[in-house]
Every structure is written in C-alpha cells, then in structure tokens.
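Dear colleague,

As promised, here are the two records you asked about, laid out in our usual form so they can be pasted straight into your sheet.

NAME FIELD: protein one
SEQUENCE, THEN STRUCTURE:
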Amino acid sequence: MATGKRYYWIKLKDTFMTSDAVDFLMGQPEGANYVVLYQMLCLKTINTDGKLERHIGEVIIPYDEAKIQRDCKWFTIDTVRVALNLYKALGLIYVDKDGVLCLTDHENLVGSSTDYADQKRIQRANNAPQLPPVDNVHTDVHENVHTENRDVDSRDKEIRDKDNSTVLESALSDYVEHRKAMGKPLVGKGLELVREDLEKLAPGDKEKQIAILQQSIKRGWKGLFPLKEEKKGPPIKSSYDNLPPKRNDKDDLERLAMMMGVDDE
C-alpha cells in the first residue's frame, strides 16, 4: 500500500565509474573506500542542498572530518581526511564562503520520488487508451475520439490532483522536520497556520505550494515566502522613440526668407 513516503536515490551517469576522477580514485590504495564515501556524502546532503552542515537554532555548523567519520562509521578518520583532500583536488567538492564543504553539481546527482507517485505512473501506463482494431478504425474513430479524449483528460487531471496532494503532504512533513532541525519546531496550531499561509501565497495551486515549501527548506528559511521570480530585462524602447523630431515647414520657409533678404508681406 502506498504511503506517500518520500525516498531518494543517487543519479549516476553510465560513465561515472569510467570518468577520470573515479578512475584516479580507484587507482589509490583505498580507492574503493573513497568512491563509496563520496556516494554516502551525496545521500547525506539530500536535505541541505549538497552542503555538509547542520543547523542548531540559528547557528550553522559545518561538518568537519570527525563529524563525517562519526556519521560514516565504516571509515577511519585517516581515510576521511585523505578522501576530502582528493575530492577538493579533483573538483568533486569545494568550500563555500562560510567555510562549508559543498558537493559540486549536487542537484544533478540526487533524485527523489514517492511510492504513491510511482504507483500512479504505473497505473497511467496500464490505463493508456488502446487503439481500435484496424477493421473498425474508420467507423469508430469519429464516434469515440472526443468522448475518449475527455475521459482521459479528466482521469489524468484527477490523478495529477491526487499526486499533488500526496506530494504536498510529504513536502509539509519535510518542512516540519526542517523547522525541528533549526530549533524552531511548529507548536500548537502551527501546521494549520502553515497551510493557511500556503493558501494565501498560492490559492488552490498545490504545485506552487510544494515549490514554496521546498524553497524555504533549500534556503534554510524559517518562514514561507513567494517564489523568487527571474529578473526581467529592461523594457524595450519603441523604435518610434528614435525618430527625429518633426520639423515645422513654416519655420523653414521663414528662415530661408531671412537668409535671402525677403521681407514678409
């Protein structure tokens, strides 16, 4: 039975194991450990946007070698220390301005879904409309095509609405955990107020509400805010504005008469 629980996976390209970086790591005495540790760090930073850090109240504490060794208990502190230095040299991780270790290109390394969404995708594939037999195609197509299209569209919309509702609940759970990790848990009617805020920010738009929750989690915000939109370019100036000013023919004739010494009558 689908529960809507979210799960994550590592998205590795088929060239990952043959890439120059991994080939170099595998050539080291503990190369296999270095590769596995790197994959564990990818999963470790799923909810922190690729950053090896933790939040205690308003304080951000970067992971150090000892913390990584405690969390990834199968590796010695020496293995962790050497691995981190190799990752930095190979460009697999970097240190940001706050001194936090970050995985390069993390958003393209990790994927997520829910068991409910997977189940519905399978159902949609199984319920896809079948083509009519060849003998009946000409007689049936005009009678059935409009009705079938309406039925499919209605069914797809119903499935999408259910998917979005389940994903929204999962995103709300992630946001609740995010607030707990920050030391600012929701109390009393906190969750109910969060739902009201989401409805104010994106009335009836569950996809947008999900994006708002994910935005606050990724950016480490306590509250909920409208989605940041891309900056628009400067307004385009009309070509009409570039035309020279219209000249006055009467003024031109008067200036010409003055130059030729002709008096006005």
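NAME FIELD: protein two
SEQUENCE, THEN STRUCTURE:
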Amino acid sequence: MFVILPRRSFLVRCLTLIILGIITFSLLVTLTGCEAAPEGSGEWYFSRAYQYALNGDYQNAVVNYTNAIKVEPLLAKAYVNRAAAYIILKDFDMAIADCDKALSLDSNLPLAYINRASAYNEKGDYNQAIQDCNKAIALQYNLAQAYINRAIAYNHQGDMGKSIADCNEALELDPNLSDGYFHRALAYEALGKTDEAIADFRQFITLSKNDALIASAQQEIVKLSAPAPSGTH
C-alpha cells in the first residue's frame, strides 16, 4: 500500500534530495586530500573520488572512497564523503552507517552530523535529524546547511515558525543559498503568507540552476498569484 503525498510535501522531499544532497556534498568536498598524494594511497583514491563526484559520477565516487578506506581504514573524511554520495544515490542506510563510522573515529566532525541529518530527513526520522543538526551547530555554528537540514525537519513536523527561523539563520550566513529561499517560501505558503512566499520563490528562481525545481517554483507562483475563487451565492 502506498500514499500519494500532497503536492507541497512532494516539493519538500524533492528539494531535500535534489538540492540538499548536492549542497551537502559541496560542503564536504572542502575536505580534499593532498594533491600530490602517492598513487595508490588513501589520499590518492580520495582525490579520485572527489573528481568523480564533481563530474556527477557518484557510483565511481563510492568505489574510490571505498578504495581509500581499504588503504586507510581510519580516514574519517572518506566515510563522510562517501555518505554524501550515498545520499545522492538514495542509499540512506549506508549513508547513516558511514556517518556513524566517521563519528566513531572523530566525534568532532560537524559535516558527519549534517550528512546524517540529511539521511534521517529522507527516512522520516525528523527528531533524530534535528538532534544531529543541533550537534553540528554546537561544533561549528556557521555552517548554513545545518540550519537548512533542521528547517526541513521542522517543516515536516509542521513547525513553520522554527523552519522560517532556521532559513533566516542560513540566509544570514549565505545570502545566495537558493534552497534557503525555497524552504522558507514553503513555510510561508503553509502559513498563508502569500506575498512572502512569492518573493522567496522568485529569489530562488534567480539563484537556482536546477531547471526542474525552477519549474516547480514557477508553478507555485502561478498558483499563489491566482485570484481567490468567488464565493457561492
């Protein structure tokens, strides 16, 4: 048995996977390895995996992160980045397992908490996602994606006030973070704040490079701009 989600919920999940996964990965690729690493070393495989991910080949990214881990089993950043690739490949259980392993090696990795929160959001475990975002923020307060992940969880829980507050925090840190505007627009729409929702959808369209989600935002603007149906007499 399956349930067809309401249109708005579908948009939230779309954005979680399509934009959040990519942004999460781009945060993680700041953990690049040594450019002059010896061939066959963990850092060499790590750099190869990074390049595959940049080119959108996440399957080969996983293969090379796995090779890096085989050579250097304590290379925590390889688990963190492989988790990001697994999220994009929709293997959320493997992503969580990789984040667990990374955190067992180093409990002070905010990006591992951020990735695990993203996976928990996709699995519908919003309380756990919020806890992981809280831990990431406690370790490093200026990672915008932690606030976005928490905003997504609050949105799914129906707490639009907290979702908007977290989007505001994220956009203070990065005014060009397109998904911050999208998620805030969805929260405004849920609260009936039509003008604010339209403004944020328009800002999202200006900043985003995702054609499918731009089309979704345009549809939302058309829907919100339509005159209210006249009452019956």
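A couple of things worth noting about protein two: The first helix runs from residue 7 to 28. Residues 1-34 have pLDDT under 50 and may be disordered.

Best,
R.
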